[in-house]
Amino acid sequence: MTTRRGLAMKATMRAVVAEDYGPPETLEVGEIPVPRPGPGQVQVRVRASAINPGELRMLVGGLRAVAPLSFPHVVGGDFAGTVTELGSKVTRFAVGDEIFGLGLPRSVIGLATQVASPPSLTTGTLAEYAVFEADTPGLEHRPVGLRADHASTLATVGLTALPLLRAGEFHRGDVVLVIGATGGVGGAVLPLLAAAGVHVIATASAIDDGYVRGLGAGETVDHHTGGTVDEVLRRYPRGVDAVINLALPGDALADVARVIRAGGRLLNIVFPFHDPALFDGKDLAVETVFTAARPGDLDILAQRALEGALPVTISRRYGLADGARACVDLLREHTRGKLVVVCGEDA
Predict the structure, then answer these.
(1) Domains, the chain
(2) CA proximity to 173, closest of 118, 242, 235, 233
(3) 46, 135, 145, 249: most buried, per Cβ within 10 A?
(4) Helix (H) or strand (E) holding 194
(5) Tens digit of pLDDT for each residue in 133-156?
(6) 183 in Cβ contact with 246 (< 8 Å)
(7) How far is the C-alpha of 163 from the C-alpha of 141, rounded, in Å?
(8) How far apart are CA 260 and CA 62, in angstroms?
(9) Is 197 exposed, middle or buried (0-12, 13-18, 19+ CB in 10 A)?
């Protein structure tokens, strides 16, 4: 038996929908049936949803071989919202609970299993309502004091930043170069590194210099002028302790490795991944790090956000009616931090 709010349920809802693979310009905001929860699932009235580049690259078809989508497809995975209906056998949440987290499309369950176990799946969060699996570390209660729009930005970037810090085993005083620091993941990595006492060198254009310094970067290198590696080596002739790559494709990392001291680390999150042969004979540890949700990680991120250690990095907010345009802007324009689609009131 399901539990529902007393409010009459809408038969249809607005959502950002893709009818087939293609660029973000093909997305439309349309009316589709409201999804209903099955056993072990919760329905959520979405308040806010932060967009991630990976979701849009999946639509272009870049991950089609390993993560095929089914259509029509509702875009979005990160969210904050209110539980509005429970499927049978759900005990973790109640109707009216404020929750946040992430989900992946149901058609990519193999990929979702790598992110969270049990996997965190969704019907898509750029919508008025979405359905999620209830028993997964990819969902958590949203604490009082943490705004819905801020919470919606934490899951994917935070659950990428925490594994990066764990893999890096950083110590106070380490010098780390972060490439792609102005993006969403950079907005979580930089303040977490700074809180750990790491000296961060961030790549950023002149216009974004103040932004990344505000997140915790100790110094910057303007990657638009070229010669990032040579400039870092000029400042640190013996090399830095580690590089965290959030932007460059794998074939560009061989040159980046020149800046890492002997015995240092190169941590990468960017697909397509590097060829391991690029680093044969080099004295450094190279690791690809994946987004992953451990039990309790979302609680850690929420607490860091409440403490101010994970500041708000929202650069633009859109209404749901403009959700398709938000997706285009994310891929086609220079953006910093996160773009958030506000799907409901009180975000």
Answers:
(1) 3-153+312-342 (3.90.180.10), 158-288 (3.40.50.720)
(2) 242
(3) 46
(4) helix 186-195
(5) 999 999 999 999 999 999 999 999
(6) yes
(7) 21
(8) 30
(9) exposed
